[in-house]
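We give its fold:
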Amino acid sequence: MGAPENNSAATGGRRQSGLRRKFGVISSYFLRRPIWCTWQVTYRCNFRCDMCPYWSTPHDKNEQSPAAFEEGAHKLADGMGNLMISLAGGEPLLRDDIVDIVGILSARHLPMVTTNGWLATREKARAMWRAGLYGVSVSLDFARAECHDAGRGVKGAFDRAVQALDHFSSTREKPRQKVNLMTVLRHDNLDEIEPLIKLAAEHRAYFMLQPYCEMKTGEAKFSPPRDAATKLLELKKRYPHFLSNTEFIRRFPQAADGGVPGCVAGRSFFNIDTNGDISRCVEFRSRPVANLARDDVGEIMRRLREVYRANDCTACWYNCRGEIEVMYTPRGLLDAVPKLLNG
């Protein structure tokens, strides 16, 4: 399963080395081209999370085939260059062909997967690494099993997430293949962060944060405490494997008090829906500006730049926005580039 090691129809030639792909992303950064893409591979989900409505919301049941991913990956690489591509959903591992999708994208891009861990096995983890997976984030919001299970709506969710961390950590073949424990920062888990950081270390994983945003459900009750950054920055200093960008965390108070202006959605990152529709970000998926299959890349980029110039949204401070945006500040860039090159 997965793309071949040396040749790929998706690239029209040999697969690019990991270092070349990373320098390609850095080159795109300096050229002010997109460097990050969130690609929704499915909206199907086997969890019932209290802070996410995807599992209960009707979605387009069409999902792109591996052939569509191959054509799209080739098109993006030739028109935009190398991208960091986050495979998301829904639950990506519900796709039986997820290994093939990773292999296709890894020929020219840096594919990452975010998963709840339920369907992760040692064999699947090993196959994904061998297919070219750049990194994986396993979602875990509480260090206490009963709390995580309740928030995710499935008994046993905690144990399966921890097992997934072990599966991915034990099967990676290169130290640069990143395993992250990803926590959604919410109203009731700030005191859980340090135990989760320690849990990540026990399972040879990094730790990262994803702040909850009211855009997800329309409810403010899950929003994290306004003063969370003080404690988080102190923890960041104490634990080197706490990977979230320092400048990203520093802006948490601003995000809570009216929002951070200057969103770079449409310029530096964008979203691809399950049917190939392209929008400036996942929360604006109902307002696509182009389609990956139907439109050429020049037109896609023109329309993305157009919505970027009109973008005055300050609603979210997701890490898919914030981690990218702070790279355009001196301190944020200083924190980010070594992790990219060493990862």
Residues 1-13 have pLDDT under 50 and may be disordered. DSSP finds 13 helices and eleven strands in the chain.
